[in-house]
Amino acid sequence: MDNNHHGIVGGVDTHKDLHFVAIVDAHDRVLASSSFPTTRQSYKSMLNWMQSFGEVKRIGIECTGTYGAGLLRYLQQFDIEILEVTSPDKTDRRKRGKDDTIDAENAAHAAFPGIRTVTPKTRDGGGIITGSEGVQRNRHCSSPYRTANDPNEYYFCTRVNS
């Protein structure tokens, strides 16, 4: 299979100091996984690593409003579709266990068909609410996330891709 022709999809499980990344091919098969520090230079290295497998069609990122905010801002300057991936299915998580590499793979698998995803907020105000601003605006959506400002606060998604 020619990945450069079909493109690939990335998935990122974000953390404070290290992001875990997985790549799936045009048939939703995991090609590779790796981890990168949370620095601007590492974001560039991460994107270059992903591109070494083919054209990056989309990237699914867990927690774009917290530890993934810097990565989201960096990736938005490129012509790549960026999706925020919501929490994995609890049944699947119980079966496979808690593992950051598996979470990155799950993010890629969710981004591949666009399931369990929302559009991250952009600088022009489009997309979902990120950070504590969501606490003041909306408390009725079904998927709560902790905010970066206060781990006891939650925000909720407002726009879901159909």
Short account of what is shown:
By secondary structure, the protein is an alpha/beta fold. It has helices at residues 3-6, 40-51, 69-75, 90-96, 100-111, 133-137, and strands at 8-13, 18-24, 30-37, 56-62, 81-85, 117-118, 144-146, 154-156.
Give the helix proportion (percent range). Answer: 25-40%
* N- to C-terminal distance: 30 Å
Strand content: 25-35%
Q: Which residues form runs of ≥5 with pLDDT under 50?
A: 1-5, 128-162
- CATH superfamily grouping: ATPase, nucleotide binding domain
Helix tally?
Answer: 6
CATH classification, class level: Alpha Beta
Radius of gyration: 15 Å
Q: How many β-strand stretches?
A: 8
Question: Which second-level CATH architecture applies?
Answer: 2-Layer Sandwich
Sheet of most strands:
6 strands, mixed
- Report the principal-axis shape: globular
What is the topology, as strand order, of the major beta sheet?
3-2-1-4-5-6
Count of spatially separate domains: 1
CATH fold-level topology: Nucleotidyltransferase, domain 5
Any overview of this molecule?
It is a single chain. The protein is built from six helices and eight strands, in the order αβββαβαβααβαββ. The protein has 162 residues and is of the alpha/beta class. It has one domain: Nucleotidyltransferase, domain 5 (2-Layer Sandwich), CATH 3.30.420.40. Strands 3-2-1-4-5-6 form a six-stranded mixed β-sheet. A hairpin with a 7-residue loop joins strand 7 and strand 8. Helix 2 crosses helix 3. The radius of gyration is 15 Å and the shape is globular.
